[in-house]
Amino acid sequence: MKPMRPPSHPILTCEEARAFEANYFRGDEAAEWIAMQRAGRALAAAVLRDFQEIGGFPADGCVLVLAGKGHNGGDALIAAQAILEKFPAATADVEFVFGERVLRPLAMRAWREFQHSARDRVQGGSAAGLGRNLPERTGAPALPHYVLSLDGVFGFQFRPPLDERAVQALRRANAADVRLRAAVDLPSGLDEPDAFRADFTYATGIVKSPVLTCANAGRVRYLDLGFFEEERVDPNALDRVLTSSLLAPLAALRAPHSDKRTYGHVFILGGSRNYPGAVLMSTLAALRSGAGLVTAFVPESLVAAFASRAPEAMWIAWPETPAGGLALEGQHLLKERIDRTNALVIGPGLGRDAETLALAKDIVATSPVPLVIDADALQPEIVSAGKAPRVLTPHAGEFARIASATHENAVFVRKGPVTRIASSAGLRPAQKGRSETGVTYYSLAGGPVLARGGSGDLLAGLIGGLLAQTPSEPLLAASRGALWHGLAADALARAHGQTAVATTQLLDFLSPVLREL
Q1: Which secondary-structure segment (H or E) carries 33?
Q2: Residue 391: pLDDT above 50?
Q3: CATH of domain 8-130+143-237
Q4: Cα–Cα distance for residue pair 253/238, rounded to 1 Å
């Protein structure tokens, strides 16, 4: 049976996106206006949602809109209009970087509707005419204060270098006191020296590939406008963005006559005296994954404490090495139970004890079930051992360590600000005729709230629990786990901010993410 492709949409180059839109709209201005309205409204909703991470949009806030000539400027104007409609005390300043007279018809229409809607709460013109919200200062020239800056100067039509008018406008915008900076589609100027520096970039309708490598893009959000409800580009596009429909099966009703065996049994093996918490966090995540049964094999000195923390799991006491790691002599504990499991997670908190790593290599080499290999188990000689399918979950440093190791049944989850999921083939340069296994999937969810110890341990346990439910679909389990983990992190940050939170709080947002679907 052919593996299921995770629900996703293609990521296009700017040239591909231009051709797609030309074919999609075919010069129909009415259809383009509808799409612009949808993009602007979706942009406003996404910005206000992301504002929750810093306490929400202030009711009397002032918005700066940087508008270019075309559709990006129109999207930004419509978004600002939607925000002012929601907040009657809010105001907006609009800077037309190239002047108001050169606005293209739909951008001009957006501007006129904004003026009509907001009346005396919006003003537009050159930079010299703006600044209703200038604070009173002495000495240095005053800079305006805005709660939000919306960059709609250039879209994917941008060609370097920036001209002087754009340079001056973007310099002012970057120097202004702004709580949140948002770019439409791509930050204007991309990686040019004076480019717009975004906190978030909102890819409207299509994710354009430059946004994934642009240092000024900040966090990337994909706003699905329905362009790909019917596949209109190469269905085997090698780069794809994961969509929330990937999680829909987890949000659906379960079979009424199911039992715990219906949803898989995951084994987790890890922990050491020096790193006791990691395997506990992986186990807690597996318990939230929907798996029917979870068994954890941990050093015997940890079992009592862990069992009291998570009594839902079955805890197996494993003999310890003198350094507090898992000893080779305990291998029979796993072998005599291995026919009861559907997936095995190995590595969280494992440590670097030589005996323990030898044990890990032997377990991976002989495993009859698919594996998730994480943390200290991500060693070249371990990840390349055996024949069972496996999901590898390295961060950048761990990936560098195992990049030369090969395995035909490996799926990589490369953790980072944008997480990439691919088979071994998907991490190599694109080649003509490459098969489905060469596709790379991108999860855009998550953010700095994940930049703390333990977030990877939660991800490993989550993927392991999902793999136990779909053991023949490691790519699906890996993609689903990465997206679910990231969306829960976003929800955590919106509820509690990015700073004063604990890693395990993420677990409490796995369920709300599914219920929102």
Answers
A1: helix 29-51
A2: yes
A3: 3.40.50.10260
A4: 33
Q: What does residue 134 show for φ and ψ, rounded to 5 degrees?
A: -70, 130
One-letter amino acid of 93: D
Using DSSP's 3-state secondary structure scheme, residue 38 falls into: helix
User: Who's near 180: CB < 8 A, 6+ residues apart?
Assistant: 47, 50, 51, 54, 147, 148, 149, 199, 200
Domain 258-428+435-516 CATH superfamily: Ribokinase (3.40.1190.20)
Question: What single DSSP character describes residue 507?
Answer: G
**Digit-coded pLDDT (tens) for 111-155:** 999 999 998 999 997 654 455 454 443 343 445 689 999 999 998
* H helix intervals, 58-191: 71-86, 105-118, 164-175
Residue 162 CB neighbours (<10 A): 22
Residue with the two structure tokens 């509808």: 34
Distance CA 465, CA 360 (A): 20
Residue 322 burial (C-beta neighbours within 10 Å; 0-12, 13-18, 19+) = exposed
| CATH 3.40.50.10260 location in the chain | 8-130+143-237
Q: Average pLDDT in the 24-49 region?
A: 97
The predicted model gives 491-517 an average pLDDT of 97
Whole-angstrom Cα distance, residue 44 to residue 25? 23
Write down the pLDDT at residue 133.
52
Q: Which amino acid is at 394?
A: P
The mean pLDDT value of the chain amounts to 93
Q: What is the 3-state secondary structure of 452-484?
A: CCCHHHHHHHHHHHHHHHCCCCHHHHHHHHHHH
Q: HSE (CB half, 13 Å, CA atoms) of 443?
A: 32
Span 346-365, mean pLDDT?
A: 98
Question: What residues have CB less than 8 Å from 433, skipping those under 6 apart?
Answer: none
Residue 408 region, left (φ>0) first, then alpha (ψ -120 to 50), else beta? alpha
Res. 5: pLDDT tops 90: no
- The reported pLDDT for the residue numbered 428 is 46
**133 to each of 56, 177, 385, how far by Cα in Å?**
19, 11, 63
Are 11 and 186 in contact by the 8 Å Cβ rule? The answer is no
pLDDT tens per residue across span 257-283: 999 999 999 999 999 999 999 999 999
